[in-house]
Design a protein that fits this description.
By secondary structure, the chain is α+β, with helices and mostly antiparallel strands. It has one domain. The chain has helices at 21-39, 52-66; strands spanning 3-4, 44-47, 74-82, 85-92, 97-103. Strand 4 (85-92) and strand 5 (97-103) form a beta hairpin. The termini are far apart. 21% of the residues are buried.
Length: 107
């Protein structure tokens, strides 16, 4: 079930298992505010258990291009395109928030 992030009333919905849920919720809300202000895009997240395609995409990019792998448990993801930029986000239980972004018109 997707969740539209409210940056005015910050909530820990979906992040409750994190020991730093409040800080992670604030970080997520900040991303939502940025995308609303810059692109008029509503930032929506999906539980990681329902977004394997996004997780696989981010993990593949990190492994192939940076030789990075995370042991942290992913809680939520977000994947969307605004203008010519593809964004993918993963919010992890330990407080890590990661984004991968690429322009779609510049290989």
């Amino acid at each position: 079930m997707s969740y539209s992030v409210d940056f005015k009333n910050v909530s820990t919905v979906g992040l409750e298992s994190s020991p730093v849920a409040e800080a992670l919720a604030g970080l997520r809300a900040n991303e939502a505010r940025y995308f609303m202000n810059k692109y008029k895009h509503e930032f929506t997240v999906v539980p990681a258990s329902e977004s394997q395609d996004t997780l696989e995409y981010v993990n593949r990019i990190l492994k192939e291009e940076r030789d990075i792998e995370f042991a942290a448990k992913p809680l939520e993801t977000s994947a969307f395109q605004v203008e010519n930029i593809r964004f993918s986000y993963v919010f992890y239980e330990d407080g890590l928030a990661l984004n991968v972004m690429y322009t779609v018109d510049d290989p």
